[in-house]
Amino acid sequence: MELENIKNQSRKAVLEIIEEAKLKEGDLFVVGCSTSEVCGQKIGTFSNYDIATSIYEGIKEALDTKGVLLAAQCCEHLNRALIVERTTCEKFNLEEVNVIPQPKAGGSFGTNAYKLMKDAVAVESLKQQASAGIDIGGTLIGMHIKPVVVPLRISFNKIGEASFLCARRRPKFVGGQRAIYDENLM
Question: In this entry, which stretches build a coiled coil (predicted)?
Fold first, then answer.
């Protein structure tokens, strides 16, 4: 696998999501990532730290262009806990939990995020406060995004061998059939 290509695909995908989801500085972006799937293997069977590093670097570069904050989802063995910067934990009033992710208990992406963030902490939940996200390889991130979660299509749908899904939030519709809605929020 060409690591630079993986990094570039990751960066490009997130830049497109930022644009399409109209993310702003300080918004929270959740990433679920199966490096096994990126390698063309079944999720949870072929964790790859080098690929996780490339994906992390590409995503982080893209998020940093707009000041968007990262939440890196761990795997099901940690009940999909998330790794965030301590400042993000405090800003969103999240509850820190005590766990250090490992490649086989947290996944390579979560482990990588924990090692590369300046002051990483694990949290059990984002309390549905993410504004958008990317699910690389079927890791299930929807529970972390603000209601209402809507799918988002960008110009491509694979990183390495893994399919990915993008999602964003939109405000709930209220008011019934006589209500008028702001097209910019749809």
Answer: none
